[in-house]
Specification:
16% strand; TIM Barrel; alpha/beta
């Protein structure tokens, strides 16, 4: 009797989980995640970014003057925190403290990576700051993602500073949750450009079911978001953290796979009859 009771409990649990996944998968409201990159230097604009309405994700540069202060304030504001790690660019731009480059030995690379990860508390994920050269380097991306995987339960977002990035390939290899940037909101710092990119973000979310956008603590960007974020839900979109976006996407993929497998099994069974 006890074994039967355990079996029934497991069956009910699986059934409840399947129902939850079904409900989540049928929730077709487009999801949008917005990351504010390069946090840590611009104090006033950084504070305004943290005060933005909704679950904006705050991406902090290590070893910057206001990094730990912003991390503490973001935690109080219940904003998700990411670590924005400087990586070698094709332009050879100065990386600053915590930068990773292709001339490092593996021991040096791992040491700097771990110092970065330890610098900001409560991070949920990591992305590349610059990195157009390093994210093309297969060896370095293998080292990087192996280090992230061994550190803990972190996700990776590829800022896509180059179309030749292999970062996501190695995130997948190391079984890290991952995503790629869909839209840069403020590559040009004008209201007209931010509006154009905002519209592109909305279009991407409608077409694909979700979108991930990146902005920066610029005055024009913060002012635009202060004005437009409050009306996002009324337009039929849901603003979520990066973690929520990744989980929602995974749930939909799982449900689609289960549904496909079920129909394939039924088709194979019927073909034998």
């Amino acid at each position: 009797m006890r074994n039967i009771a355990i079996l029934l409990t497991l069956l009910f649990s699986f059934d409840a989980l399947a129902q939850q996944q079904h409900v989540a998968a049928q929730d077709s409201v487009p999801r949008i995640a917005i990351i504010i990159d390069d946090m840590g230097n611009r104090f006033e604009h950084g504070k305004r970014a943290i005060a933005l309405p909704g679950p904006i994700t705050v991406n902090i540069l290590p070893f910057t003057p206001h990094a730990r202060y912003f991390a503490a304030q973001a935690k109080k504001a219940r904003k998700e925190i990411m670590l924005h790690i400087p990586m070698e660019a094709n332009s050879d731009r100065y990386l600053g403290a915590g930068g990773l480059h292709s001339g490092m030995s593996r021991n040096e690379f791992n040491h700097i990576l771990n110092r970065n990860l330890d610098w900001i508390p409560d991070i949920k994920g990591v992305s590349n700051h610059m990195g157009s050269r390093l994210t093309q380097n297969e060896k370095m991306m293998d080292w990087f993602m192996t280090g992230l995987a061994s550190y803990g339960d972190l996700y990776f977002v590829d800022s896509r500073t180059t179309a030749n990035s292999v970062a996501v390939d190695f995130a997948r290899k190391n079984q890290l949750q991952h995503a790629e940037r869909d839209v840069f909101l403020d590559h040009e710092q004008t209201t007209q450009h931010v509006q154009h990119q905002w519209n592109s973000m909305l279009k991407t979310a409608r077409r694909n079911g979700s979108a991930l956008a990146i902005g920066h603590p610029y005055g024009v960007t913060i002012e635009f978001l202060e004005k437009h974020l409050p009306g996002l839900e009324a337009q039929g979109y849901k603003l979520v953290s990066v973690s929520e976006l990744l989980q929602w996407r995974q749930t939909r993929r799982n449900y689609a796979w289960q549904t496909s497998s079920f129909h394939s099994h039924r088709a194979a069974k019927n073909s034998k009859q």
